[in-house]
Design brief:
The protein is of the alpha+beta class. The protein has 3 domains: 92 residues, 2-Layer Sandwich (Uridine Diphospho-n-acetylenolpyruvylglucosamine Reductase, domain 2); 110 residues, 2-Layer Sandwich (Uridine Diphospho-n-acetylenolpyruvylglucosamine Reductase, domain 3); 194 residues, Alpha-Beta Plaits. The chain is built from 12 helices and 23 strands. A hairpin with a 2-residue loop joins strand 17 and strand 18. The radius of gyration is 22 Å and the shape is globular. The structure holds flavin-adenine dinucleotide (FAD).
């Protein structure tokens, strides 16, 4: 962008003032983006945002004025998606400065936060006040509204995704007006896992519960045959269970079992279905240092410091990586695992690690777990986009008989028409999104391709 154009774009005159008097518009070529990287890229650095302008409003009123004033736009959370879902042909509105804890209502056990708050920003505070969220993703670094918009999840056969914590949202609609939606509102289950299609969520009210501690035990080298014979028992052996594997040598390299200490828990011993108890903290990618991982070895700790795999103060996962993740109805779990295991020699050169988790059914229209308990096959790949994007269609074809659905925020190549056909509420979702946004302000390349 030329300097003059930049100045012109940042001094849009709007009713009641000059936009730049309270809103920062950042020149993407010169500035740091919200993740602190010196280019406007997503967290993993594999996607460069094409939006010309990035705005960082710090109040509801600023968001309203921006939304009303701007044409093509999209909310940007903490930039952790691996694809173009958060991009815009023109403007992005970051929620980076909308991160306040608004209100903890102890009578009704609810917590209201601004949409850009990251779970790790307020989790310790919530715990200090005696409360907890039911679950977290593998990392606490993601924004609440951004995580919910893509149906981000943790693990646990009884645990729904993070959107299932949401009781209500405050939404700035494409015309700049504000609407409050709670679970009784007919649009609630479309808007919360809304892929950013309905406007900008500015506040989220979450259900909280009494705080609890969790202990995390890790077991190494679980034979594949044990997984096949005892899949349900293994995945139910804790409040949240993750299996990590590189698919080689007919084994799961690590089993992470997170158990609440307020539940009846037995000693798991040293032998877990043929896997041996780890003797020190370990990273999901065993060769990496466990320094950034939450404590294991059965040491109890608060929920927010055990349910994610990675600690807030450190870089999560591997950093320079790609991710894909596929949701599979739980009844096909073992068949799906064995299908992917057959591809191990093709997968191995490009994989860092895969993770298998469970997620309970929910009611969100565009959640991959809509009315369906699922397991997920997540893979952290080496950052080799060409090779990974060549492999994904093969994996997707193998998983097609299981009605596989991809994670909205990760890499996938499934044909949009096929994908849409796997969502019972897709047509209703499109109709509602069009009703909220008749001129398509919040449509971007991703939505045009995959949803509309
Ligand atoms: C290292 C790593 C680990 C991860 N682990 C997990 C995991 O354990 N489980 C899992 O399910 N996923 C995981 N993810 C994926 C990640 O949680 C999701 O992609 C999530 O959407 C990221 O949130 P964000 O705020 O960064 O979203 P962004 O990438 O910034 O935005 C995602 C979408 O949300 C929309 N959005 C953001 N804020 C708002 C708002 N205020 N109003 C309306 N729409 C909004 C955007 O427009 C966009 O469509 C991981 C990602 C990384 C990089």
């Amino acid at each position: 962008m030329k300097r003059n154009d930049f100045i012109k774009k940042t001094t849009l005159v709007i009713t009641g003032g000059i936009l730049t008097s309270y809103t920062s518009c950042i020149d993407p070529k010169k500035s740091k983006n919200v993740a602190g990287i010196s280019e406007r890229k997503n967290w993993a650095g594999n996607y460069r945002y094409k939006a010309e302008n990035l705005y960082e409003p710090s109040s509801l009123e600023e968001v309203q004025q921006l939304v009303k004033q701007l044409d093509k736009q999209k909310a940007l959370g903490s930039t952790h998606c691996f694809n173009d879902i958060a991009d815009s042909p023109k403007d992005q509105i970051s929620t980076k400065k909308l991160k306040k804890v608004v209100h903890l209502d102890t009578d009704n056990k609810t917590l209201t936060v601004e949409a850009g708050a990251r779970y790790g920003d307020f989790a310790a505070l919530l715990h200090e006040q005696g409360y907890a969220l039911h679950n977290l993703a593998s990392l606490p670094h993601i924004s609440v509204a951004g995580a919910c918009a893509t149906a981000t999840h943790g693990s646990g056969v009884g645990n729904g995704n993070l959107a299932t914590q949401v009781l209500a949202v405050e939404l700035v609609k494409p015309d700049g007006s504000v609407v409050h939606l709670d679970r009784a509102h007919p649009d609630f289950y479309a808007v919360v896992v809304g892929l950013g299609a309905f406007g900008i969520i500015t506040k989220v009210t979450l259900a909280v519960e009494d705080t609890f501690d969790v202990r995390q035990d890790v077991f190494l080298d679980l034979p594949l045959e044990s997984v096949v014979s005892n899949f349900d028992e293994i995945m139910s052996s804790g409040y949240s269970v993750s299996l990590f594997t590189d698919w080689m040598n007919k084994k799961v390299s690590e089993v992470w079992i997170k158990r609440r200490t307020d539940a009846e828990i037995s000693d798991l011993g040293n032998d877990f279905y043929g896997a041996k108890a780890a003797t020190k903290n370990i990273h999901p990618i065993a060769d990496l240092s466990a320094e950034n991982c939450t404590d294991q070895m059965g040491v109890p700790g608060p929920w927010y410091d055990r349910l994610p795999h990675f600690k807030m103060g450190f870089t999560p996962s591997a950093g320079k990586e790609l991710q894909s993740e596929y949701f599979i109805p739980r009844e096909y779990a073992v068949d799906a695992l064995l299908t992917i295991e057959e591809m191990k020699d093709e997968i191995y050169p490009h994989i860092m690690i895969s993770e298998i988790r469970s997620i309970a059914a929910d009611n969100f229209w565009m959640s991959p777990c809509y009315k369906q308990d699922c397991i997920t096959l997540h893979t952290t790949w080496k950052q080799k986009p060409k090779e990974v994007l060549a492999l994904l269609p093969k994996i997707e074809a193998k998983l097609a008989p299981f009605n596989v659905k991809p994670h909205w925020g990760k890499l996938f190549t499934i044909d949009p028409l096929i994908l849409q056909g796997r969502y019972e509420k897709h047509t209703d979702f499109v109709a509602l999104a069009k009703a909220y946004d008749p001129t398509g302000k919040f449509r971007n390349g991703y939505l045009n391709k995959n949803i509309y």
